[in-house]
Design goal:
There is one protein chain. The chain has 113 residues and is of the alpha+beta class. It has a single domain, classed as Alpha-Beta Plaits (2-Layer Sandwich). Helices cover 25% and strands 27% of the residues. The protein has a 4-stranded antiparallel beta sheet with strand order 2-3-1-4. It starts with a strand and ends in a 12-residue tail after the last strand.
């Protein structure tokens, strides 16, 4: 972890048979949502699919001074979650069910020099 950013990971669950739709929606992510994520401190955000379980692994690098906790209160985030709720496990207010993942290993090439 750098002094100015950190990387976190979490798991979400997609409903079976929704992989193509999940990808399509993210291929067409709204510019205003992308802008909100970046403004909140997201530096890099990746989502990977385990097709055998329909689990989604998200890896997010964010500034240490991020404001991501405020995003659920924004109109654009609420609209996005409402749109995604039919293809993912979601809780109250359509918030995706997320399980934080604990880091257990990290190899960084620059640390070996």
């Amino acid at each position: 972890m750098s002094a100015d950013h950190e990387t976190v990971a979490f798991r979400m669950n997609m409903h079976p048979g929704q992989a193509a739709e999940y990808k399509r929606r993210h291929d067409e992510i709204w510019p205003e949502l992308t802008e909100a994520l970046i403004a909140a401190g997201v530096l890099d955000y990746r989502v990977f699919l385990d097709p055998g379980t329909d689990h989604l692994l998200a890896v997010l690098t964010r500034r240490c001074d991020h404001t991501l906790a405020a995003l659920p209160n924004t109109e654009v985030m609420k609209r996005w979650w409402a749109m995604m709720a039919d293809i993912m496990e979601a809780g109250p207010d359509n918030v995706p069910v997320q399980v934080d993942l604990a880091p257990v290993f990290h190899l960084k090439a620059s640390d070996r020099r």
